[in-house]
């Protein structure tokens, strides 16, 4: 009986180490999940406002929302997938970046009212600020993806130190 308990204890300890390593790996992508959630809800909000004014430009937030769904799935899978590749995230952040730059250009044209009919001329500053924040976030996320895919991120070093410590 003692031998069985020792085996169970060892198995439980191994499972705990494995789960701990998976959690550390999953946390490596935590910032991506927050940024994706921010962009998802920002696009949802934009879509809802365009629906209420029956504007044809609602196509743009719909496309962005549909494009982000596979990215959400990609991040969900990271709990058990320890690879450092984020191909869907990379593609989405480029798409969001291009759309935001295009929308920033549109802010200087009369088309502004087609894309943001719910905003007055005073609200244009808020839209420009949100687009600029979105552009900066997308650029930063692309940089982080590049660092992670090339194993040059700071979190990897901490992860390796932690793995070494629990494997002793």
TrEMBL record:
Keywords: Membrane, Transmembrane, Transmembrane helix. It comes from the Bacteria. The chain crosses the membrane at residues 31-52, 58-76, 97-119, 125-142. This is Uncharacterized protein. It comes from Ligilactobacillus pabuli.
